[in-house]
Specification:
The complex is a heterodimer.
Chain A: E1 4-8, E2 19-20, H1 27-41, E3 43-53, E4 63-67, E5 74-89, E6 92-108
Antiparallel strand pairs in A: 3-6, 4-5, 5-6
Chain B: H1 13-19, H2 33-36, H3 65-71, E1 72-79, E2 118-128, E3 131-144, E4 147-157, E5 178-192, E6 195-207, H4 208-211, H5 217-225, E7 230-241, E8 246-256, H6 259-268, E9 271-272, H7 288-297, H8 302-312, H9 316-320, H10 323-328, E10 347-350, E11 353-365, E12 372-377, E13 391-396, E14 399-412, E15 418-425, E16 439-442, E17 447-448, H11 449-457, E18 462-464, E19 470-471, E20 477-481, H12 483-492, E21 496-500, E22 506-510, E23 526-529, E24 534-541, E25 549-553, E26 563-568, E27 575-581, E28 589-593, E29 600-617, E30 621-628, E31 630-637, E32 644-646, E33 650-655, E34 663-679, E35 688-692
Parallel strand pairs in B: 5-7, 18-22
Antiparallel strand pairs in B: 1-5, 2-3, 3-4, 5-6, 7-8, 8-9, 10-11, 10-13, 11-12, 12-15, 13-14, 14-15, 16-20, 17-19, 21-22, 26-27, 27-34, 28-35, 29-34, 30-33, 31-34, 32-33
Helix pairs in contact in B: 11-12
The chains are: A mainly beta, B mainly beta.
Chain lengths: ~110, ~700
C-alpha cells in the first residue's frame, strides 16, 4: 500500500513541502507524523526561558502552565529543555531549575 | 691620686676578666663569683691596700680614676626599712650622716670626694617615740674605672658621737642596719655629628644586707665598673619606606676612651641591621609584597612555599571564588523577598564514595537523548576517582541522576589554587557516537519497529510509547550508523523524539504529546506562580513560515501509466503473448486492437516473473525495466545505500540511506502482469490497446 495523504489544520491554505519518509509505511503513522509536523509549523511560537524553584520530576515534553501575576494571564508551554543548577552561596546552597519552553501564540496559520 | 687595687688572683681568673665583661645593652646577670675572682678576706674585712686589680686588654693595670670622674656617680643610702622595726608599726627616722675626716656627698651625683682606699666613716641617727638611735659606719671606699667599691669595716651601733646630744637610746641592744649602695654609670653617650643626643645610664643597687660579709656584691660592682664610656662615632641610616613598612639599615660604629673600652668595643662594634624601627628587634613582619618579591628573587623549595602560604594566607581563596558574585546572586521569587535556599550540599557517589560538590548543573534538551552534567569538586584531588566511562550518580533533592564520565579537567594555577570539573552524560550515551559500534544492515523482510529496536538495544531498554507498525522489506537499512541513529530515525517517522530519563533509560514519545490546539483544555504537568516559583522569566518571539497543509508520502510519486509488451512465439511467428502491466495495479483490464478480425487477444490471467537487473542509482533514485511487485534481494556494488522504497508496480524506486545517494545495485525483483494470448496474420502490424474492463 502506498502512503499518500494530506494533513490539514484550519483553512489549509498554506501548503508546506511534502514529507517523504519511506519508513512511514502505515496510515496511522502518516497521520501522527502529519499531526506532529503541523504542531510545530502551524503557529508562531515564542521561546521562553524561566528560572524557577527547583522541582524534581520535570521532563522535556511536559506541559507547563505559567501564571503571570502582572498581566493575569495563564499560558501553556511545552518544556523543551531543563537545567538544574546547584551552587554554594556563602555557607548555604542555592538550587534552581531553568526551563526552556516553546509557547505557541494565538496566531495560527 | 690613683690607687691600684690589689686582690688575690688565681691563674684561671685572668682571662675570665674580659670574657665576662658585659655587652652593651644586655641585661646584667651576676656571674659566678668564684669564677670571677677569688676574694678571701683573711682575718676580716680588708683595709686599704688589699683591693682589686683591674687590667685592660693588654694586661696593663689601669688607673681607675682616669675615667671615673666623667662617668660615675655614687649614691649611698642608709636604708633601715628592712631590718629596723621600732614600736608597733610606727616607723620614722631621721638621719644625719657625716663624714669623719672626709665629706661624702650622699646621695649627691657627681664626683665623690673620697679617694679609693680611704676609710669613710659616717653616723646615723634615728628618732622615734622620743628616743634617738644612733650608729656609726666605717668603710673603705674604693673606686676604679667607672665604678666604686665599698668595703665594710664595721658597724658600731649605738655609738653616738659627741656632737649628737639628747637622750641616750633607751635600749642599748645591738641591731643591724642595711647600707644600700647604688651606682649609676653612663653606659653610652650618643653623638651624631658631635651633637650629644642623649645618654644611656644604668644603675646597679647592692643592699648591704646581702653584701655585707659576702663577696657576691663584688662582681656586681666589678661588672658595673667595666662599663666603658662608649661613643657612637658614626651612625649611618639609609633605607626605603613603603606604604606600610620602613626598611632601615643602620650602621653604628662605637669607640671609647681607654684601652679597656677598646677591648670591649671589639665585641660590640659591628653593623647593626634594623629591619624596622617600628617593631622589636628580631621580629619581622612578612607581608604579601615582601613574599612576592621574595618569590621572584629567590627560588624557594616547594614545601617552603606551601608552608609560607599556609601560614601567611595568601590571596588564593580570593582567586578561587568570586565572592561578590556569590553574594549577589540570591534567588527569590518575583513577588517575594524570601530567598530560596537549601542547606544540603550536592554530592556525587562513585563506587560507593561520596564526593562533595562545590557546584553542579544537570541538564537536558529535547534535541539530546541524554542528560549531561558538570560538577565542580570541593576537593580537586577527588577528580582521580573519575575514570573514563565510570558510572556515578548525582544526588539532587528528590531525584538521583545516573551518569557515566564524559570528560574531566583539572586546573592548577598555584599551590593552593586548584579546581577540578567532571562532566557526565547519561549511560544511554553508550548507544551513540563515539562510544557505540556502528552497524550496517538492511532488513530484508518486513519488521515491526519494536522488534527492530529490541534487536538493536536489547529487551526493555527502550520504552516505545508511540505507534508500532510494520516496515516493509528492504525499507529499513543502515550503513555505518549507531543504534541511537537508527532509533532517532525510527522515532521520527511517526513524529516522535527520543527522550532520556534521569536513570538513563530511553523512551520514545511524540514530539508534541498534546496537540497544540488542545493546550487550552489540557491539564498541565507543571504549574508555576510568580509568588512562589518564578525567579525570572524572559521570552522571545519569532515569525516563522506558517504551514497548515502537508502531504505525507512514503515514496516519491511516479507517473502512473499502463504498459503492454508483446512476446512473439518462437515457433509460430503469428502467435505470441501480451503482457499487460497496469499501473496502478488492477486485474480487470482488457486488450483491444485496431486491426481486422484475424487478430485476437485472449486473457490468460495474472502471472509473475522474477528478474535480475543491474541498475544505476543517482540522487537516491533508480529504475528497473519492469514494474516492481516484490523485491527478492539487493546486492549493492561497493557502496551500500541500505534499502529501497518503491511504489508497488512502479519501475522507479528510491534508496533509504540518509546521506549516500549514488551507487550500483544488482536487484532481483518479482514483477506481475496480466497475460493475454495474441494471434495475428503474417506480416501484420497491429496496435493493441489496454482498456478498462467494462
Amino acid at each position: 500500500m502506498t502512503i499518500d495523504i494530506f494533513v490539514v489544520r484550519g483553512a489549509g491554505d498554506r501548503r508546506g513541502e511534502d514529507v517523504v519518509d519511506p519508513l512511514v509505511s502505515a496510515l496511522p503513522v502518516a497521520i501522527q507524523r502529519g499531526r506532529n509536523e503541523l504542531d510545530g509549523l502551524s503557529s508562531a511560537p515564542q521561546t521562553v526561558s524561566a528560572e524557577t524553584v527547583y522541582r524534581p520530576g520535570v521532563r522535556t515534553g511536559q506541559l507547563a502552565r505559567f501564571c503571570d501575576s502582572q498581566s493575569g494571564s495563564r499560558t501553556m508551554a511545552k518544556i523543551m529543555g531543563v537545567t538544574h543548577e546547584v551552587r554554594k552561596v556563602g555557607d548555604s546552597v542555592q538550587i534552581s531549575t531553568t526551563l526552556r519552553l516553546r509557547r505557541p501564540t494565538d496566531y495560527y496559520a | 691620686m690613683a690607687t691600684v687595687l690589689q686582690d688575690t688572683f688565681t691563674g684561671a681568673a685572668d682571662t675570665a676578666l674580659l670574657d665576662h665583661a658585659p655587652d652593651i645593652g644586655s641585661a646584667w646577670t651576676a656571674p659566678d663569683a668564684s669564677a670571677w675572682f677569688s676574694y678571701n678576706p683573711s682575718g676580716g674585712p680588708k683595709l686599704d691596700g688589699a683591693g682589686l686589680l683591674v687590667y685592660d686588654s693588654d694586661w696593663q693595670a689601669v688607673t681607675p680614676d682616669q675615667v671615673i670622674s666623667d662617668v660615675c656617680s655614687v649614691t649611698t643610702t642608709l636604708d633601715f626599712s628592712d631590718v629596723m622595726d621600732v614600736g608597733n608599726g610606727g616607723f620614722g627616722y631621721s638621719s644625719a650622716i657625716q663624714h669623719l675626716g672626709h665629706s661624702l656627698d650622699i646621695p649627691t651625683l657627681g664626683t665623690p670626694d673620697a679617694q679609693s682606699g680611704e676609710v669613710v666613716q659616717c653616723y646615723g641617727i634615728a628618732t622615734d617615740y622620743g628616743a634617738t638611735w644612733g650608729w656609726k659606719l666605717s668603710f673603705v671606699y674604693y673606686s676604679y674605672v667607672a665604678g666604686s667599691l665599698v668595703d665594710f669595716l664595721s658597724i658600731d651601733d649605738n655609738a653616738l658621737p659627741d656632737l649628737i646630744t639628747g637622750d641616750q637610746p633607751a635600749v642599748a641592744a645591738p641591731f643591724s642596719c642595711a647600707l644600700k649602695v647604688e651606682f649609676t654609670a653612663i653606659e653610652a653617650i650618643v653623638y651624631v655629628d658631635d651633637v650629644e643626643l642623649g645618654r644611656v645610664t644604668r644603675t646597679v643597687s647592692v643592699p648591704t644586707s646581702e653584701a655585707v660579709g659576702s663577696t657576691l656584691w663584688r662582681p656586681a660592682l666589678r661588672s658595673f665598673g667595666a662599663f666603658p664610656l662608649l661613643r657612637i662615632d658614626e651612625l649611618v641610616i639609609d633605607g626605603s619606606e613603603e606604604a606600610t613598612h620602613r626598611h632601615v639599615h643602620a650602621s653604628i660604629s662605637l669607640s671609647g676612651g681607654s684601652a679597656l673600652i677598646a677591648a670591649v668595643r671589639r665585641t660590640v662594634e659591628q653593623e647593626l641591621v634594623i629591619e624596622d624601627f617600628g617593631v622589636e628587634e628580631g621580629e619581622v613582619v612578612l607581608d604579601g609584597s615582601f613574599l612576592a618579591e621574595l618569590e621572584q628573587e629567590v627560588v624557594l623549595a616547594y614545601h617552603l612555599l606551601e608552608l609560607v602560604e599556609q601560614e601567611i594566607v595568601l590571596d588564593s581563596e580570593i582567586l578561587d571564588v568570586d565572592v561578590i558574585e556569590q553574594e549577589v546572586v540570591v534567588l527569590y521569587p518575583i513577588l517575594s523577598g524570601e530567598p530560596v535556599q537549601i542547606t544540603a550540599a550536592p554530592t556525587a557517589v562513585i563506587r560507593g564514595q561520596v564526593v562533595p560538590l562545590e557546584s553542579a548543573s544537570v541538564a537536558i534538551d529535547e534535541e539530546q537523548s541524554a542528560w549531561v552534567c558538570e560538577l565542580s569538586l570541593v576537593d580537586p584531588l577527588h577528580h582521580g576517582l573519575f575514570g573514563p566511562d565510570d558510572v556515578f550518580t548525582v544526588n539532587l533533592p528528590g531525584e538521583d541522576y545516573a551518569f557515566i564520565v564524559d570528560s574531566k579537567s583539572f586546573d592548577r594555577r598555584g599551590q593552593v589554587d586548584r579546581s577540578a570539573v567532571v562532566s557526565g552524560i547519561s549511560p544511554s550515551a553508550r548507544f551513540a557516537a563515539p562510544r557505540a559500534k556502528k552497524i550496517s544492515r538492511t532488513w530484508g523482510s518486513a519488521v515491526l519497529v519494536t522488534d527492530a529496536v529490541e534487536e538493536l538495544f536489547g529487551t526493555g531498554v527502550v520504552d516505545w510509547q508511540v505507534l508500532n507498525w510494520s516496515i516493509p522489506a528492504f525499507r529499513l537499512g543502515v550503513e555505518s550508523q549507531t543504534p541511537m541513529d537508527v532509533l532517532q530515525r525510527l522515532a521520527q517517522a511517526p513524529g516522535a523524539v527520543v527522550d532520556c530519563e534521569p536513570n538513563g533509560g530511553l523512551r520514545v514519545r511524540y514530539a508534541f504529546p498534546v496537540a497544540v490546539p488542545q493546550y487550552a483544555s489540557a491539564a498541565p504537568d507543571q504549574e508555576y506562580f510568580d509568588a512562589e516559583h518564578n525567579f525570572s522569566v524572559s521570552e522571545r518571539g519569532v515569525t516563522p513560515q506558517l504551514v497548515n497543509r502537508l502531504r505525507i508520502l512514503d515514496v516519491q510519486p511516479g507517473a502512473a501509466r499502463d504498459s503492454i509488451e508483446f512476446e512473439q512465439d518462437k515457433v509460430r511467428f503469428t502467435r505470441g503473448r501480451l503482457r499487460v502491466f497496469p499501473q496502478p495495479w488492477r486485474e480487470e483490464v482488457r486488450v483491444e486492437h485496431t486491426s481486422d478480425a484475424r487478430v485476437s487477444a485472449t486473457a490468460i490471467g495474472v502471472e509473475t516473473e522474477e528478474l535480475t537487473e543491474t541498475v544505476e542509482v543517482i540522487a537516491g533514485k533508480g529504475s528497473v525495466s519492469k514494474p516492481i511487485y516484490q523485491v527478492v534481494s539487493l546486492e549493492w556494488l561497493f557502496r551500500n545505500l541500505t534499502g529501497v522504497a518503491f511504489e508497488t508496480d512502479a519501475r522507479e524506486f528510491s534508496t533509504t540511506h540518509p546521506t549516500e545517494k549514488e551507487s550500483l545495485l544488482v536487484i532481483t525483483y518479482r514483477t506481475r502482469f496480466v497475460a493475454f494470448k495474441a494471434a495475428a496474420f503474417r506480416d501484420a502490424e497491429v496496435q493493441f490497446l489496454v482498456k478498462e474492463a467494462v
